[in-house]
Amino acid sequence: MKVRDSITELKETKLYTQLLSLDSEYAERIKTFVRAIEPLMASIKNYFPYYTRHDVHHGYQVVHRMEQCLLGACFDVELPEALTAQEIFLLIAAAYAHDLGMAVFPGEEESLRAKLGLSSQDGWKTSEDLQNHLRKNHSNRGGRYIEEHAESLAVPRNLVSALDLMMKAHNYSIPQLEKELYRPFAAGQKESDLAQLAVIVCVADAIEFSDTRVVDGVLEQLVKDQSSPAKISYAENMKHVCTGDSLAVAQDGRIIVSGTFSDENVLALAHRTFDQMEEWIQGYSDIDHRSNVKRLKIRGGTFHRDLTLSHGEFHRLGVRLNKRNVIDLIASNAIWRRDQGIALRELVQNSVEACRYRAHHSAPSDKYHPEVRVAFNRDSHSVSVSDNGCGMSERTVLNNLLTVGSSRSCEVTYTESDYSPIARFGIGFWSVFTISDIATVSTAAFENYRGKPNDAQCARGFEFNVQLENLKDYTVFRPVDRACGTNISLKLKPDVVIDDIYIALKNQILCSMVSLTLELDGNEERIEVEVPDVNEELLFGVRRQKASSLDIKVFKFHETTPKASLKFGLAYRMENNKATFTSEPNKSMFNVMEGHGIHRQRSAICGFSVPIRVSSFCIDVLRVGTYHMNSLTPKGFEFSIDRQQLNNNAAEKQYTDEVRNLFHKGYRSFLKSTESYDPETIHTLQNEAASNGGNVYDTFTGSELAIAYQNYPDLICNKLTPVEPTSRLQDSVMNAKFINLTELADIEGIVFCLQGQRNFQNGGAYFPLESPQAFELAYACVQGFVKQYSPNIPVYIMQPDRNFSMLFDNDPLASARVLPIGNDLEVSLLNIQLSRVNYKGRPVNVVPDISGRWSGTIYWREFQTPDDKPYLFLGRHRVLVKPETALHSYLKKLADDNRFATIANTIHLLREDEAGHNPEALSAYV
Predict the structure, then answer these.
(1) DSSP codes, 103-170
(2) Phi/psi at 385 (nearest 5 deg)?
(3) CA 253, CA 275: separation in Å to the nearest integer?
(4) What span, in angstroms and rounded, lies between the C-alpha atoms of 751 and 221?
(5) Measured at the alpha carbon of residue 411, what is the angle toward residues 406 and 412, in degrees to the nearest 5?
(6) Residue 107 clears pLDDT 60, i.e. is over it
(7) d(CA 500, CA 483)
(8) Which listed site, 118, 242, 671, 830, has its alpha carbon 20 to 30 Å from 135?
(9) What is the pLDDT at residue 625?
(10) Is there a contact between 428 and 393 (Cβ–Cβ < 8 Å)?
């Protein structure tokens, strides 16, 4: 086909002929419109010389394709499908002008160059910056130009906004199109479906393959240009050359495409293009299907492709999956860990998401109040999850719910800057088959009912069944009238116990962002929006009476920020007008706590439970209370596939940091309200909270000191007992200093601490390092040091605790000395110098996070041992390695090469060496 005069081409189209018969004024208007934009459209090739055709001839071809896509009834004025003059005008105008914004308009060259920082030298018109700007903004630019020149373009003012939306639609995703164009619109005294008109243009534009699509001379230019963009453009143009006009719409609406290719890469590109087109057209067809009258003849589905390679047989591979095996896998306990609550949690999560999404896109006039309900039915041995959320269209069901790994959260409307989806993977629905044999889904989409709250209560929906044992390769949608939203009913497997899944679901939900009701045996339980309180019943259970008799109270704190909410409770009593975490003098709170042990904190994202342990609290919270925390946004979090674990990333860190800061704000309130905000009491409370198994000091502290110093230096208070050459221990204890981190950073001194013993594994006696006897021993040893060396700075001693471990880890020159005590015991005396402690960064000269046969941290530190070994274990998870030794060189080389498993094996052998077994593999290093 040759490119002819634009008006001649226009007059040949069936749509123009229909327009002329309906309204000659509109026929004249569209001719004026095409003539006016023709020079602008022709100029696009000046800015995109390697692109396929985007001039008015392309518009003519789009109009021609529209005629092939439309039902014949659209041209019969007696039928309800008939197009009005205004609708035909909009269709033709959008077909011709949808790429208008890719042109540079008269008078804007200078301002565009200034805006983009381009010079006026040759080549600016094809600069990458200009092309990116025009391509990114062309859908907005074209509509704006038409609005500014509506009179000269002969566009009626009442149609300007509609034309603008239709032109933008070809750049929208399907959900965006539904969101932006589902709105009341009237023209010619008749209601029109703007979304339907837009999809007619979009379908026609998508299938516009013709033998004139490639501009003459472009391929010759591209062959000479070896740049990467040119190679991409060459493949795109060759795709159209090899297909030509061999794309047809059959009478039954199927799309048939043929072509012969000499380059397998171009053929692969063509297949990828048609894959994308199939997805688009399916979505466009769904929108047409939901309209009051259908107008598209074309139907969604797989194209019939006859694409051949001239020099061989072309076979598409991609990733081949056995569909049945994949579905069996994701619907099995191999993924969902045999937790029956997860399946219902996934459905409730989808319902909450649907309600959030609908609320986000609803106006006050919609009078929308989100609600989710879970009903357990013993008689029918079933459970149903219902909501009045956004519901689902046929396209959503086929492309998302029933397509493994295709989550709506990836669609543009779900990833807007002001909306963050809870959904992630697109497999949660399939978890229901761990507890159910059959799922019945009933749904109605809300998009068509925006602004129509009454109609939304009786919407056009559909229902269908999914049965894993009898999984079919087709789905039957049965029409139903129902309120917008979704209901999923599960017929439970015989071995599933209603009470068990009810309790399991409650364990999966901490709170709810929308109204959520659980119903069982006629009783309704409302899940609150706020995180639950930490109260006496939770902490003490049946031991509340005993706690009350001991005058034990619970301090409760609650605070919410825009991103997180925290509630915590601490069990305490008053003694000598100060708070204490003991149930009785010198007795732990454990004997009055529920379960006689440590409480489990509860954490959640948008109300759905996920285990998150906040590290670096100033006290061992879970030994004297517990806390509940909830992130109010799902944005940025990364989950394990069953959503039972949270991956470490920036969002997780921000969440835990915020909760940590909220806790310490509340803890300060507790201290001040009990008149306990003084260093000595703070130190005492920290020790009391760590009693009975807390106070784990033989592990690496990482960044705990830096976090504490930056955020809560007043809540970490150290007890420094001075060591004088002639003072008795009792006198020194009386003169002990209680100093917080801010004050500690400003003083000098050497601090000693007894933090390890040897020979225990080799039959030596056990020596409790936290005992008064150990403290006396340490004091005597340090006093001997003071007498011998007379240091010119103060010398202190600390009890073995995590506070000292933080100081030791952050002094890069900290050292240790092993002291023999009798014949069968050796203890490790550690020392640090306060002026060397780094309070603002992470520890150095360490290799942390080793895991394998041994787990822990290696320290490059100096130390002295009676046997002159090059290593020294400080408990189970810390080992010092002396610098400049063969062992140090070996381990450092392994660390530099990231061979951490080998390091773990080596440290394990060092443990064996310490026990006296002398592994031969270590002979070169020990």
Answers:
(1) SPPTT-HHHHHHHHT--SSTTGGG-HHHHHHHHHHHHHHHHHHHHHTHHHHT--HHHHHHHHHHHHHT
(2) -120, 115
(3) 17
(4) 78
(5) 170
(6) yes
(7) 31
(8) 242
(9) 93
(10) no
Closest CA to 888 of 917, 896, 814: 896
Q: What is the β-pairing status of strands 255-261 and 304-309?
A: parallel
Question: Is 70 in contact with 296 (CB distance < 8 Å)?
Answer: yes
The full DSSP string for 47-115 is H-TTSPP-SHHHHHHHHHHHHHHB-GGGG-TTSTTPPPHHHHHHHHHHHHHTTGGGSPPTT-HHHHHHH
Residue 58 tokens read as 């392309």
199 pLDDT higher than 50: yes
- Taking the C-alpha atoms of residue 304 and residue 296, their distance in angstroms, rounded to an integer, is 18
- Element containing residue 831 per DSSP (H, E): strand 826-833
pLDDT at 531: 94
Q: Where are the alpha helices (DSSP H) in 405-520?
A: 498-508
- 732-735 contact pairs (CB < 8 A, 24+): 732/779
Helix or strand holding residue 191 (H, E): strand 190-191
Query: By the 8 A CB rule, do 855 and 904 touch?
Result: yes
Give residue-wise pLDDT tens across range 752-767: 999 888 764 555 567 7
Of 578, 660, 656, whose CA–CA distance to 612 is shortest?
A: 656
Q: Tens digit of pLDDT for each residue in 285-327? A: 888 888 889 999 998 788 999 999 998 888 876 555 445 555 5
Nearest to 66 by CA among 215, 230, 226, 196: 196
Percent of residues in the chain assigned helix, strand, coil, to nearest 5: 45, 20, 35
Contact 858, 891 (CB under 8 A): yes
CA–CA distance, 310 with 543 (Å, rounded to integer): 84
What distance lies between CA 914 and its chain's CA centroid? 46
- Structural contact between residues 169 and 198, judged by C-beta atoms closer than 8 angstroms: yes
Q: Which helix (H) or strand (E) holds 242?
A: helix 228-243
Higher pLDDT, 1 or 496: 496
CB 779 within 8 A of CB 729: yes
What's residue 19's pLDDT? 96
What's the whole-number average pLDDT of the chain? Answer: 89
pTM above 0.70? Answer: yes
Among 562, 176, 524, smallest CA distance to 371 is for: 524
- The secondary element (H helix, E strand) that includes residue 284 is helix 264-289
Task: List beta partners, residue 652.
Answer: none
Strand, coil or helix: 369: coil
3-state secondary structure at position 220: helix
Q: Is the pLDDT of residue 68 over 90?
A: yes
DSSP per-residue string spanning 617-634:
-SS-GGGTEEEEEEES--
